[in-house]
């Protein structure tokens, strides 16, 4: 439901749903789902403009993904892009970072081990939509 609200632009509802998932005791038993939820949480906070909190969330997400051996190249590319964007001053830099992310994700899409990430969320399509918005 959180992904549904995010894709439709209802970021506050997406945040409410993702917070409900984080409060659930069952989320800890599904590492794949928790990793996806943490990545989606980063995107939600980016979209609602919580850039100060995003810096902390990025560090916590990277630590979690590395500890569970779920820190793949796709996640690294998205997180590195978000790190650069929250420090960016103008939209030109932000747009350039999203263009670089799209190119990197396009090349990663060909990798067998990285292509499965699109089952949970299509980061390439999201980055291309962000370029159009800017």
Summarize it:
This protein has 134 residues and is mostly helical. It has helices at 2-7, 11-23, 31-48, 51-67, 73-87, 91-108, 112-115, 123-133.
Task: Describe the structure using short key phrases.
mainly alpha; globular; 134 residues; 2 domains; 8 helices
How does this model look, in words?
The structure is a single chain. With 134 residues, the protein is an all-alpha fold. The chain has 2 domains: 71 residues; 63 residues. It is built from 8 helices and no strands. Helix 5 runs antiparallel to helix 6. It is globular, with a radius of gyration of 14 Å. It starts with a helix and ends with a helix. The mean pLDDT is 90.
Classify the beta-strand content into a percent band: under 5%
Class from helix and strand fractions: mainly alpha
Average pLDDT confidence is 90
Low-confidence stretches: none
Order of helices and strands: HHHHHHHH
Q: How many domain regions?
A: 2
Q: How big is the Rg?
A: 14 Å
For the report, how would you describe the main beta sheet? Answer: none
What's the β-strand tally?
0
Q: In DSSP terms, counting alpha (H) and pi (I) runs of 4 or more, how many helices?
A: 8
What's the overall geometry? globular
Spatial gap, N to C terminus: 26 Å
Percent range of helical residues: over 70%
């Amino acid at each position: 439901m959180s992904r549904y609200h995010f894709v439709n632009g209802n970021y506050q509802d997406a945040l409410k749903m993702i917070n409900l998932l984080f409060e659930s005791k069952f989320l800890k038993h599904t590492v794949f789902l928790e990793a996806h939820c943490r990545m989606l949480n980063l995107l939600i906070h980016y979209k609602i403009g919580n850039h100060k909190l995003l810096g902390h969330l990025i560090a916590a997400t990277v630590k979690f993904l590395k500890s569970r051996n779920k820190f793949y190249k796709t996640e690294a590319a998205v997180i590195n892009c978000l790190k650069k964007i929250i420090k960016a001053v103008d939209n030109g830099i932000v747009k350039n970072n999203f263009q670089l992310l799209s190119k990197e994700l396009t090349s990663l899409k060909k990798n067998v081990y990285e292509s499965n990430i699109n089952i949970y969320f299509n980061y390439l399509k999201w980055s291309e939509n962000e370029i159009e918005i800017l």
